[in-house]
Specification:
This protein is an alpha+beta fold. The chain contains 9 helices and 8 strands. It has a domain of 72 residues: Integrase, N-terminal zinc-binding domain (Arc Repressor Mutant, subunit A).
Length: 246
């Protein structure tokens, strides 16, 4: 579990400090759009929208941008967005699971297949990799004034499976079915999470030689740079040697 949490934290910190910020904004706007079309523009009665707004605040999206996204999503004439998933293997047989939100499925699947083919991988059939991953809730919480031991004990009492503190951020892992109750607990504690999402966590990771592992990370970056891609999951083991090169 800790290996994946480590990768989640790396991606979070990269996104907070480089050009990926605009990509993060784009992803969150799509999340807001889907949420509004599912259950309306009122965050108080729409948990998914409330979560999307919290994530928007966590990556410092301006309030005006959030409101514009909600207003645009309420427009019945706006382009329809569809959530899709793609599964395949990269170099070294690493499993890669891609989640996308798109207004053109043909364009998206064509791009995804091309990325796999050009970088030593192959696109598989949907459902072929589900057994390799568990759905888990992942919360990134800034430590701020929180006392480590007291906070960890309280969160574990609430049902957290794992809590780690690294670089002044707590990473909390929960079962998928406990995601909502953990979100409610965090809100009751008046804590604004930096990020809170349901993720696909590998049941087991695969260790590769450094050269092949870097090819995998490069392929993941290519997927994540695609405007239609929301999240990319994999079962590559993130070693300390790999981290040094990030």
């Amino acid at each position: 579990m800790s290996g994946h949490n480590k990768w989640s934290s790396i991606k979070h910190k990269k996104g907070a400090n480089d050009a990926k910020r605009s990509k993060m904004f784009s992803k969150i706007i799509k999340e807001i759009t889907i949420a509004v079309r599912e259950s309306g523009p009122d965050p108080s009665s729409n948990p998914r929208l409330r979560l999307s707004i919290s994530n928007a605040k966590g990556c410092n999206m301006p309030k005006d941008n959030i409101q514009r996204a909600i207003h645009k999503a309420s427009d019945k004439n706006a382009s329809a967005l569809i959530e899709t998933t793609y599964e395949g293997h990269g170099p070294g047989g690493i499993a890669i699971f891609v989640e996308s939100t798109t207004d053109n499925q043909q364009r998206t699947i064509s791009n995804i297949r091309s990325y796999f083919n050009k970088h030593g991988g192959s696109l598989g059939t949907n459902g072929s990799l589900n057994f390799l991953f568990d759905r888990k809730g992942i919360f990134i919480i800034p430590q701020n004034d929180l006392k480590e031991d007291d906070f960890i004990l309280e969160i574990i009492d609430e049902g957290a499976e794992d809590v780690e503190l690294e670089d002044k951020f707590f990473t909390i892992t929960t079962k998928m079915e406990d995601f909502g109750s953990m979100m409610k607990k965090i809100e009751q504690m008046n804590i604004e999470p930096e990020n809170a999402t349901l993720q696909r966590i590998p049941k087991n990771t695969v260790k590769l030689d450094t050269e092949t592992a870097k090819k995998i990370l490069n392929l993941i970056d290519i997927f994540e740079d695609d405007d239609d891609v929301q999240e990319v999951y994999h079962n590559l083991e993130i070693t300390d040697e790999l981290m040094k090169g990030m």
